[in-house]
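Homework help thread (please don't just give me the answer)

Our assignment gives two proteins as sequence + structure token strings and asks us to describe the second one. The first is just a warm-up. Here they are:
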Amino acid sequence: MAKIAFIGLGNMGYPMAGHLLGAGHDVTVVNRTPAKAARWCDEYGGAQAATPAAAADSAEFVFTCVGNDDDLRAVVLGRQGVVQTLRAGRIFIDHSTTSAVVAREMAAALAARGIEFLDAPVSGGQAGAQKGVLTVMCGGSERAFERARPVVAAYARACALMGPVGSGQLTKMVNQVCIAGLLQGLAEGLAFGQRVGLDMNAVIEVIAKGAAQSWQMDNRAHTMCQGEFNFGFAVDWMRKDLGIVRDEASRHGAQLPVTTLVDGFYAELQARGGGRWDTSSLIERLRG
């Protein structure tokens, strides 16, 4: 069993850290809002530290699940960041969804201190985190991956090494591109079915057994038809992710016409006050 620091107890990190403790690891948590870390300790029984540096001081593995590139930089390089105390030979695993650029930047900063870095974004949403069945896409060395994999298994259904540092984030970008286009197609299909007067429960039951089947259909189609969006992955988060994708695509000259269009649709939902709605809320634009 490992001594672990887990930094960032949002919708994903909170249950993930709980699974690590449940697997028998020694877990110390840190959160921007200390009261949330205290609540986690009350629920799971782990320890709380005041800063990333304090949590990392004796850790073998440091996990992060924070909001964006700047948050990750602060956790790693800030005055109370993990570089102040984390020792050579340790492993840093970042589960945030960030740019590949910052992943490489953090890897270089930590490598200078003898610490290995894995960029390891996840897919599966809050429900997947709670159930411990996330998919983890890793970038880094094979040595670091093999050391981390048995620990990550506490909340992962699948965990794969995709290539060198940055490859995990690039794979997550592919994931988000596919989801954005799929959700728009699903929204259009369901809205069309409702408009022409079909029994949508019957429609979904039939087409979900054919080529149109997807995770989004299985888990979101009925709630989309009912106009329920108070759960899951928020529009604000998806726009952040798609912004990262579009920046990366621009650097490589990759074309993302549908992704760009759907990103604009999400911007419309934000303008309507739907930033915290689930990403399946794309159907709301079509109800007119």
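The one we have to describe:
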Amino acid sequence: MFRALLIDDEQHCLDRLSGLLETHCRDSIGVCGQSASVEEACRAIASLHPDLVFLDVQIQDQTGFDLLGMVPRIDFEVIFTTAYEKYAVQAFRFSAMDYLLKPVDPDDLVQAVGKLKEKIGAAELSGHLKALFHNLTQLRGAARIISVPTVKGFTFVTVGEILRCQAQGNYTILFLKDQRKFTVARTLKQFEELLSDYSFFRVHQSHLINLSYIRKYDKGGGGTVWMQDQTQIEVSTRRKEEFLRRVAEI
């Protein structure tokens, strides 16, 4: 049973989340307290020692990051709640931090709580939080940091370092421009969803490429792309027209 502290400056949001937890997560989550300000939340964390904090991103004129910076040691799990629009929510996905979009959906809540069984260490949590803070400050900028779950833990790389992604069953191999590569516990479809707005294009069922690193393109059928690392990748016939359109936009 996780002891959860709910932090939000809007009472109706606290009431909704508390009610959803009682209805859908009663066997795994018990609410130990609620706070409506950063100062109150600091005191609650120190006195209640929660296992889990549901943390609003914007708390009055402060943020959830202000709170985390005031806590001596983050020894609890964090699930953010946010009303941010899509482009900012993408920062959470890049950083592999759990979040709930307001108004909180019951199914999303159950899924987020279910992930708590896959607990990560304090050092890795700190890395995720740093990546998330960086991504939120950049927002529409290009210097996004992506959290890459590998067989050994997590690696943090900037999106611009990724040259191409290749499917391998339910895993994906990331090839970086400095010749490093990582086998990642995510599908290629997940990377396509994350990276499609950042000059990446899925040219084939098994290949997602960074269009910025194309060296040349040979026609014929769908055609063949030559990447900066000398890799030759077939472009599927059905994706050729869209591929050429995207390349023309660069």
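TA reply:
I won't write it for you, but here's a hint about the kind of observation we're looking for: Helices lie at 11-24, 38-48, 64-70, 86-95, 106-114, 122-138, 188-195, 240-249.
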